[in-house]
Amino acid sequence: MKLSEILESKRLSLSFEVFPPKSDSGFESVREAVEQIAEISPSFMSVTYGAGGGTGRYTLEIAKSIKERHGVPTLAHLTCVASTKDGVRGKIRAMKEAGIENVMALRGDIPEGVDQRAVEGWCYRHAVDLVRELKEQCPDFCIGGACYPEIHPESANRKEDIAYLKQKVDAGCSFLTTQMFFDNNLLYNFLYKIREAGITVPVIPGVMPITNANQVERALKLSGSFMPQRFKSLVDKFGSDPEAMKQAGIAYATDQIIDLYANGITNVHVYSMNKPDVAKKITDNLSHIIGKV
Ligand code: FAD
Which listed residue (5, 8, 17, 28) is catalytic? Predict the structure, then answer.
C-alpha cells in the first residue's frame, strides 16, 4: 500500500521506525523486535539505511518481511551519499523486484574527513538527485524526503533550507518526515513557513521517546534539536533511575503526540529505535484516541 493513501487518514495513526543490525550476529534480535512492533499493527513501519548504528545491508530484507509476513506497509530508506550511479540503480532495481512501493530518499551524512573536492565530484550530491533518479527508474514509487523543523545543521539559514526542500518536493516527494523535535511549537512554526513557501505535501512529524539519559546527548548531537526546559528538568530528575526515566520519556512523547493531534496532525512517526515495549506503551497510552481498544 502506498503511503500517500495511508496519509489521507482523518484519525490519528502511528508509524514506527526500525533500524537494521550492525552485523550478522545482531540480526535475530532485530528480527524479533521488528516482529513485535509489527504485531501492534502500526500504519506503516520504516526501515533505515545505515543510520542509528545499523548498516544498509539488511534494509530491503527487513522491509520486505514486514510487508509480506505481517501485512504492515513499509517504507524502505535509501541513501545516496558517496554512491555510484550503477550502485544506486542496482539498489532501486532490487527494491522494485522485492515489491517495495514506498522509498525514503535521503542523502545520508557526509563521512567525516571527506575532501570537499571529492564531494563535488559525486553523482548524487543531495537527496534531490536521488529523488530524480527514483522518479526516472520507478515512476510508480511513492517517495518521501526528510525535513528539519530546526533547519538542517549544514544550512546557512532557514530560507535557504526551505528553498532546497521545495526543490526536493518538486522533484517528486509525495510526503516529508521530520527530524525529531522536543518542542511542538517549532514544528507548527516550520509548517507555517513551508506552506507559505508553497510546499503542500503531507508532513509526518517525527517524535523520539527518550527513554534513557545517555540517549539524550546522542539524540541532540545527531539532530541538533533544542531541548526545552520542561524536558531538561525531567532528565535531571529521573536520569539516574532507568525505569523512571523510561516512564517519563514515554509520557513526554505521548503528550507531544496528543498535542500534535489536537492541532490537526493525523500521522505521527515514532522513533522507537527497535524497542517494542516503547512502541507498545505509546500505542496503549493512546488507545482510545487511535481507536485500538
Ligand atoms: P538533503 O535534502 O540533500 O539536504 C542536506 C543539506 O543540503 C541541507 O542543508 C540542504 O538545505 C542542502 N541542500 C539540499 N539540496 C541542495 C542543493 N541543491 N544545493 C545546495 N544545498 C542543498 N541517514 C541515514 O544514513 N540513513 C537513514 O535511513 C536516515 N533516515 C532519516 C530519516 C529522517 C526522517 C531524517 C530527518 C533523517 C534521516 N537520516 C538518515 C539522516 C540524513 O541522512 C541526514 O540528516 C543528512 O545529513 C541529510 O540528508 P537529507 O536527505 O535531508 O539531505
Answer: 17
Give the Å distance between the CA of 279 and the centre of ligand 1: 25
The neighbour count for residue 185, using CB atoms within 10 Å, is 12
User: How many independent structural domains does the chain possess?
Assistant: 1
Ligand 1 atom closest to Cα of residue 145: 51
Answering whether pTM is above 0.85, one says: yes
Instruction: State the residue range of the domain holding 235.
Output: 3-290
Per-residue model confidence as pLDDT tens for the chain (293 residues): 999 999 998 899 999 999 999 888 999 999 999 999 999 999 999 999 986 556 778 999 999 999 999 999 999 999 999 899 999 999 999 999 999 999 999 999 988 888 888 888 899 999 999 999 999 999 999 999 999 999 999 999 999 999 999 999 999 999 999 999 999 999 999 999 999 999 999 999 999 999 998 888 888 877 788 889 999 999 999 999 999 999 999 999 999 999 999 999 999 999 999 999 999 999 999 999 998 77
